[in-house]
Amino acid sequence: MRRRVITLCIIAPLLAAILICPRRSSNAFETVAPQQTRRRQQRRAPVSRTPPRDYSRFSHATPTHKQQSCNACHDAPTANWRAARGFPDVADYPGHASCIRCHRQQFFTGARPPLCAICHTRVAPTGDARPVFPRPSPFRSQFAVEFPHDKHQDVIASHAPPAENGNEARLVKASFTTSIQQGSAPVKKYNNCAICHETDEGQPQAPPGGWRDGFVPASKSFKTMPRTHASCFNCHWKSQAPTREDCAGCHKLSAAAPAQPAAAVAGLRRISVKFTHAREQHTAECTTCHINITRASTLRGLRPDVPITACASCHKTSTDRTTATIETELERRRKDASFTCAKCHTSDLGRKSAPPSHYALFSD
Amino acid sequence: MRNPKLTTALVSALALGLLCVPGGAAQSTDVAPQQSARGVIRLRVRPKIDGKEKGLARKRFFLIAGSLEENRALVEAIERAPAVSRDCYYRRIGASASLIRWLKENDCESVYCRELEMADVEGPGAVPEFQAAWAQGRKEFGSTELALKWITVNLSAELRSGFYKKQQETLSALLKQAEELTRAKPVSVMTDRNGTAYFTDLAVGTYVISNLIPVEMGQASLLWNCEIKVKAGELGTERPFLISNQKGGNVKCVSIEKPLSSCDGAAQRAARPALDSPPVGR
Question: How far, CA to CA in Å, does A334 sit from each of A61, A310, A337, A357, B235?
């Protein structure tokens, strides 16, 4: 009985406060202009069901923001493009004018308006310091990039076999592009996968939890992925759709595909982590191993994009029985279920059951 | 624990459920699984050019469900489809002789084929279209290098991707017909520099393999429409499906070879001094 009385004493004043006090926070962040908001506030003043909005976080997905065209806020190019990028680009946050149109109220709220935190590192009306644009890792992008590999490969496709074999091998090794050597003339650079994917000279970033079995891939094991518009705007700056004004042509709000932290994109998971692109025998043309990439109309659903079939042309068997091959490792696995396949995999995958595709190599 | 009996019953049911899950997580023995009901085709396209066999690089091939007989109407449509040669296309849009030569010398279908160099915009080998676009880029970006690197943004749409789009029109119509006929979306892959390509994860059955749009080879065009059977568990690692323009021991598919169509009146236009004012983008 005593407990009930205490509970009532706490809840009753709380309810009264909620019902009587006028609502202070505005809901204008994602819906309406200030004037309309005031009218709505008068009508709805007595009841507040939604929690106050967090104006320190910006969402592209609110209904009002979704209605805006991208260039309502983002300039392309921004004034700082020369210094920031060296090529015309969206290289900075939108200006104040983009926000203040609807968020005047939040702009002038107190000495530390939460809204400032969206773009500024110091929350104060006088601070103008900003993090790099776009924000670096672990910032979570609200967009997924849609890239039709197949179309791009068709457009840059060469008309006929470009060169004699001897030449190609050497040049392919250098840059993953096919080229023509004309006498002593400089080598011509044919556009290929390498226009977007270069050899990553840096030390690979360890996955969360660190490298398995202490195996640290060497530099040049991986290829880079485009991180800026540099690989896009050289063709899609204007005229060639989607252009810089049609952001949604490539950037899809990630309702369908959940937003990924930049770090996750940076360290795409490789099943055969011991493979290195840099090894001299691994310098074939990209599509020699990435055999599914040319049928990909998006970046999704490419698992795996290098099936075992691509590896089997060299690693299925060997005349030297001491060399680890798919055959020798599967044999050892048959004899000893605890055997860990280690030629290509680290132990997290190497101790699991081999997939049917591996056994199918020997089904003929 | 208000009702110990109910709790016990719930826990037992849960445990039983977990035990009954098919292929429980506890299963770890590494037994070779049954043969996969999917297959792989390894395609090798190696036509003979000037008596020498060469891999046909970067050409797209399509796989259409069903046999040649089942796809007869489609195959006839593929053979009838209008094909515009590269040279004819560029002549028709009034491209300069220098650009046509540049495309030919570099074995390119479009201006996106390779990076441009100073020799392409200056000096005796300069291409007028590139020169104009480069000049426009220099004004726009204030940088010689950037203008060269981004040269295609100042070329007209016809020059940039017109030939590709023309081919895509034909291709889209044929693919639509194939999809309607077979009720399955054709899959496609592009050959690598050795003329090899893989179709993976295929359902067992009969297919038609085709390039849909003829490939230009010298003064001829090559079109392939062949039947292929995919068997369960076949990974294509041992036996490639060899395609050529001539019959031979292991060749499984020979092309229909036709001379390239003449460019109606285009040669006349190409010879005109219209080349001084090449098409340049906005």
Answer: 53, 23, 6, 16, 21
Q: Cβ distance B159 to B129 under 8 Å?
A: yes
Check: CB of residue B64 under 8 Å from CB of residue B206: no
3-class state of residue A294 by DSSP? helix
Contact B113 A168 (CB under 8 A): no
- Chain B from 251 to 280: CB within 8 A of any A CB: none
Alpha-carbon gap, residue B240 to B225, rounded angstroms: 17
Overall residue count recorded for chain A in this entry: 364
Mean pLDDT of chain B: 83
Mean pLDDT of B28-44: 68
ipTM of the complex: 0.74
Task: Tell me phi and psi for residue A348, to 5 degrees.
Answer: -60, -35
Alpha carbon separation from B197 to A59, B160, B188 (Å, rounded):
43, 27, 10
- CB-CB under 8 Å, A337 with B150: no
Which of A158, A177, A180, A305 is the best mutation test for B, with the most CBs of B within 10 A?
A158
Taking only the tens place, the pLDDT of each residue in B195-204 is 999 998 899 9
Q: Beta-strand (E) ranges in chain A?
A: 143-145, 251-253
| Distance (Å, whole) CA A329 – CA A103 | 64
Answer whether residue B51 shows pLDDT above 70: yes
CA–CA distance, B71 with B79 (Å, rounded to integer): 12
Task: Pick the closest to residue A86 from B168, B143, B163 (CA basis).
Answer: B143
- In this structure, the strands spanning B38-45 and B241-244 are parallel
CA distance A35 to A307: 60
B60 contacts in chain A (CB < 8 Å): 154, 157, 294
- Cβ atoms of B236 and A307 within 8 Å: the answer is no
> What is the average per-residue pLDDT within B273-281?
42
Residues in chain B, how many? 282
The parts of chain A modelled with pLDDT lower than 70 are 1-49, 137-138, 157-186, 255-268, 299-304, 364
Nearest CA in chain A to B160: A240
Residues B89/B166, Cβ–Cβ less than 8 Å: yes
Whole-number pLDDT of residue A153: 81
Any idea which residue has 């809204």 for tokens? A115
* Mean pLDDT estimate for chain A: 76
| Mean pLDDT of all residues in B137-141 | 97
C-beta separation of B213 from B83 below 8 A: yes
Please give the Cα distance from B62 to A144 (Å, whole number).
29
- Cross-chain residue pair B30–A333, CB shorter than 8 Å: yes
Mean pLDDT throughout B76-95? 93
Entry pTM: 0.75
Residues of A in contact with B233 (CB under 8 A): 360, 363
H/E element holding B257? Answer: strand B256-259
CB atoms within 10 A of CB B246: 13
